[in-house]
Description:
The structure holds 2 protein chains of 2 kinds.
Chain A: H1 2-5, H2 9-31, H3 34-49, H4 62-84, H5 107-124, H6 128-138, H7 144-151, H8 155-177
Helix pairs in contact in A: 2-3, 2-4, 3-4, 5-8, 6-8, 7-8
Chain B: H1 3-9, H2 13-17, H3 23-35, H4 37-52, H5 64-81, H6 92-97, H7 116-130, E1 134-135, E2 146-153, E3 155-156, E4 165-171, E5 178-183, E6 192-200, E7 203-210, E8 218-222, E9 231-238, E10 251-254
Antiparallel strand pairs in B: 1-2, 2-4, 3-10, 4-5, 5-8, 6-7, 6-9, 9-10
Helix pairs in contact in B: 3-4
Amino acid sequence: MRLVQEGNPRAFELLYDRHGGASFSLAYRMVGNRVTAEDVAQEAFLSIWRSKARYQPDRGSVRTWVIGIVHHRAIDALRRNLVHERRRSSAEGIEERHEAPERERTDVEAARREDARHVRDALAGLPEEQTRVIELAYFGGFSHSQIAEMLQMPIGTVKGRMRLGLEKLRKGLAEKVG
Amino acid sequence: MSVERHELLQEDVGAYVLGALDDSELRRFEAHLEECPVCADEAERLRPAAQALPRSVTPVAPPAALKSSLLATVDAEARERAGLSPRRPRPLARVADRLRTAGSSLGNLRPGMALAGACVVLLAGVATGAAGLYAIDNATESGQPRAVSRTIIAKVDKTRVPLGSGSLALPADHENGAVLRVHGLRPLEEGSVYQVWVMRGRETISQSLFTVGEDGDGAAAVTDDLQGADAVKVTREPAGGAKAPSENSILTVPL
């Protein structure tokens, strides 16, 4: 990361090779079309390159940091698109956008696919109403007050479901690891 | 820290780690975290669960053009930082070589678009001869090249198209038959095209579709009379074109 922020293009390429796939996948999952997902991933990686975003090792892994930047950019894109009424997730929930999965090329990718299954299993273990508010918030970029309006429920209920759902998800993930 | 305040705010912790608090609530909750170890601990405990969510996403391969576009930008900026001269722009004739209409399905576009193909063929012929000093519009029956009266530089959304640039060449004698040239745009995935629009008051009129080569260069015809028009714009749309722009323009030529 130090080399990237010192302006080394080859280090940047390596960073992209390691995290570009996950970044694009998250962006695509959130914005729902490839063109905007490309924009999001491009903006995120260029902000890293231009040192507008600084990695702090004590705050987590490089991957978590990169994905966090992509997430913020995707929310920005969703808000821009809300104005444009291009694509808005319905109150029914955020549907997974299915596409031919990336080909498994390495053991690392196979391990990540397995990890993804674990996280999905843990999510599937939550009550549906908790999963819904969590997905609307994280993947849809909606605030709790927007979700409350969409689902026609009190804000306190939405907040409570988020909190309970995350606690349950944390335990579910810990059990998988354990 | 008062107990009442803690009880009021503790329920925000889930929305906080999910990034779902409004701005004012976020500031209020972050101030609370400074003074409330209970909520700070809970936020740290729940954060890994929120950070696990992107790992559940089905992997989708990014287009190869994304990496090549990023690396081109990064290389160019690294050269600039090192005080090296930027890469020489490609000759205009190369632009004309790449000139093409990208849409085979034009059914959902205005009738005027059908003329774009004729313009494209003529322009390609001119660019190889007069090196872009002239443009020919589709209405030229004699086949004589028409002098370009002025060239307008496009405004580009540098956030989305960091290396993009473009210009619109307007013919001298009247205002239709303009040609838009672009550089540094990202080659789009199959199934997507760039689409040119003319903005006139509240009206948005489709003009033509185009793609760019691996070097990001391309050109497109503007078939409408531009007298009284406000701008020429470019957006990215599904193959075959859209009836109306589905995103903010990535490139705008103010008229």
